[in-house]
Amino acid sequence: LEAIAQGYGWTEQDKLMHLLAALKGDAEQVLLTCRDNLEYVQLSEKLKQRFSKAVPPEQARAELWSRRQHETESIQELAGHVEKLAVMVAPQLSVTERDRLFSVPAFLNALANPEISFELMRRRVSSMVEAVSEALFLQGLDEWKKRCRDDVDRSSASSGCESDNSEEIAAATR
To answer: Is residue 171 packed enough to be buried (19+ CB in 10 Å), middle (13-18) or exposed (0-12)?
Structure first.
């Protein structure tokens, strides 16, 4: 609402009227706890107190370092959750610093596949964009190797995977 209000040049009273018009359900019930001479700042603070899911930095830090990838969770979903927790831990840091100190190490720690995590450490990834991109590549390569092994085990000559040249592929992409 703040960005819209600034763009349109709304006054505090304008912001209050637009916010009041948008309230529904439980949010509307917050009005019952407000004074008669309601102000925008007062109402927005009450709404934040009631509906905000703010986590204390200490709790966010504990969650960040104990976070593990769930069985059905994608790499992208894990990364998003790790980045959200890292922002809660250190909102004052730049993205580059937060990635280096919190997001990337926690992401590598949280990955379910230790081989991918180790390979990313070996490659010294330094940003979440790089870590996610490389993790997805390595996950795809790992799935391809498993599929090839399964095809060879079933003696399937039509898979195109008769020789496991995954080491050559991995080396070529470094």
So the answer is: exposed
